[in-house]
Amino acid sequence: MKNHEVKVYPSKYGLKKEDQLAWKLAALVTDNVPISKEVEAMVINRIIDNASVAVASLNREPIINARAQALAHARTDKGASIFGLSSDIKVHAEWAAWANCVAVRELDYHDTYLAADYSHPGDSIPAVLAVAQQLGLGGEALLRGIVASYEVHVNLVKGICLHEHKIDHVAHLCPAQAAGVCALLGLDTETTYQAIQQALHVSISTRQSRKGEISSWKAYVPAHGAKLAIEAVDRAMRGEGSPSPIYEGEDSVIAWILDGPDANYIVPLPEKGEEKRAILETYTKEHSAEYQSQALIDLAFRMREKVSDFSQIKNILIETSHHTHYVIGTGANDPQKMDPNSSRETLDHSIMYIFTVALEDGFWHHEKSYARERANRAETVKLWHKVETIEKEKWTKLYHDKDPDKKAFGGRVIITMINGEVISDELERANAHPAGAIPFVRENYIKKFDMLTESIIDKAERDRFIGLAENLSKLSAEEVLQLNVLAPKGYVVESKIKGIFG
């Protein structure tokens, strides 16, 4: 890996294209190095993971509406398929990516990477897959595109913090989605460079989507990025240029939206000829909740055995990282995070709620743990309001450790009982983390898939989809089109609400 300095230059400096971050990202994307079996195996894991959470979400309202919008953009010739529907039903690629991204993101239950900023790199997969399906590309090209999207996304997240300027993380996702599509198509460096710049330029939005009362837009954010990215690549393929230099220019994103004219970022990227392995640093979720709560859920399961009577708890203090405290903890100062009538999206960004329910129940479920009646239990609300978070330097340092085997997103919990007894414990990382107690392997991804889909699809469909996914690099174009879980006839709910598109 090589570290690249990224800072702002005045227009009169004439920063060479080859010295710009967008060009370096494009050069990385177009450096078609061999992909190891280890990396391919992880891509397969994430395709299975994405499908499992998408199928479990098929009849949730945001997905019903996103699917209806996509179906209003049908294609009679080559097109892309929508999760849950027959592959004979084809829509425009950007609209398939739209519907499928919402389905993947809705439950907040797929992969994550946390460093200087936040990310869900698996959000790129639906965009790359949709374009592969529409243009009739096989598994080898699809694999190449997904690997490139992860590489760009993870390394941007390592180097450039968006959230401290209240910019949403789609600003790293959209360039990664564009990069993945360019790699899929085998485009040249110039075209890829223009597409990445355009994708960033149009994808800046604020973090209000994750503040206060969090709405279904949180699930739509990657879908919005996917549409913008696909359109940016199409435009670049037609020879159109983009605002440049998008990162370093004196009126650029960095100069006016991020750290400003004196900014100095360090972005690590693989050297020419070096394998793209960033996906191996990412991790999925065992529990359907914001990633920074994963270890704390596991810790709640462990600590509940030491608490004989939850009503006798005086208070609960969670010592954790800066990010956890200020994003999903009491440091956010969001009263909505303490409100039992808040949206599911808000509750899954409240560690106070999550830890309380995990402590009381001893399990976590993507629906039961968020049910309105569950959140409104009087004893739960009472205990929930006794939980407070604080930042501790130890946990912030672990959060930002550059060694993936040391990086950790956990915390220490101190439960004080009314009688003065103190119960404390800590956990650095979730059990399912690659460096955790029980790291997720293929068996766990398939078990998660089965748990989320067993009441929806039959064994034949399950085996068909997993068989295709596990043969990824050898798939034909027709098989890539079939890389979709088909729900039983009559299962998928149709929207009864009409909009502009019908």
TrEMBL record:
One matching Pfam family: MmgE_PrpD_N
Domain of life: Bacteria
Gene3D superfamilies xref list: 2-methylcitrate dehydratase PrpD
UniProt GO molecular function: lyase activity
Chain coiled-coil ranges: none
Residue stretches making up the MmgE/PrpD N-terminal domain: 20-264
Annotated ranges, domain MmgE/PrpD C-terminal: 287-472
Family the entry assigns: Belongs to the PrpD family.
Protein's UniProt name: 2-methylcitrate dehydratase
UniProt source species: Arcticibacterium luteifluviistationis
